Amino acid sequence: MKRHDVTAGPASSGPASGGIEHTCVSRRSFLKGGSVAGGAIMLSGVPGMEGKVLAAQVVRYPRMFIAKLSALTTDQPLKFKYPDDGRNSGSLLVKLGERAGGGLGPDRDVVAFNALCTHQGGPMGGTYKPEHKILGPCPFHQSTFDLTRHGMIVSGHATESLPQVLLELEGDDIYAVGMIGLIYGRHDNLKG
Q: Which of 67, 93, 112, 128 has a CA-to-CA distance to 169 between 20 and 30 Å?
């Protein structure tokens, strides 16, 4: 089966894809679709849960203005707080100057991440290395994270990627609209 980039739009069906049509969903469509709570899970194979039905929960992140795309300078991080002003919500918006996973803008190079190390919560807001497009090393145990690859761990003790802030562009305005991953020190990103 052929792999498709979710930003590329719908893929065609045919012999190269095994006759299967792949429909790609945009981030905006996914988030809009997530506003309708629906579905249930029947737990028949779990001991003690036979016949119980659990309703699926839908999380709604706030939509928050972050910056103007035209005001960003390559490799100059901008600090902001998301999804709230609570504990551990410090984040960075960075125009990397090269295409990045989850990137926004015409060059797909604008990304945002929570700025705490996922290992033990070390503050990493001032550790951006533009020559390598990484955040780190963490002052606690030297973990570094690749911002071009969804905040993936490069080295150190961390085992989780940095939580990535989902971004949306409306004209020249950049908005934070959700998160992928759990902020260090929280059991729920929206209950900080």
A: 128
119 is catalytic: yes
**Is 50 or 129 the better-scoring residue by pLDDT?**
129
| Secondary structure of residue 7 in the 3-state scheme | coil
- Contact predicate 24/30, CB 8 Å: no
CATH class, domain 64-180, is: mainly beta
Answer whether 92's CB lies under 8 Å from 75's CB: no
Q: Per residue in 146-177, pLDDT tens?
A: 999 999 999 999 999 999 999 999 999 999 99
Domain-wise residue ranges, the chain: 15-55, 64-180
Catalytic choice (4, 22, 132, 141): 141
What's the burial of 17, exposed, middle or buried (CB within 10 Å: 0-12/13-18/19+)? middle
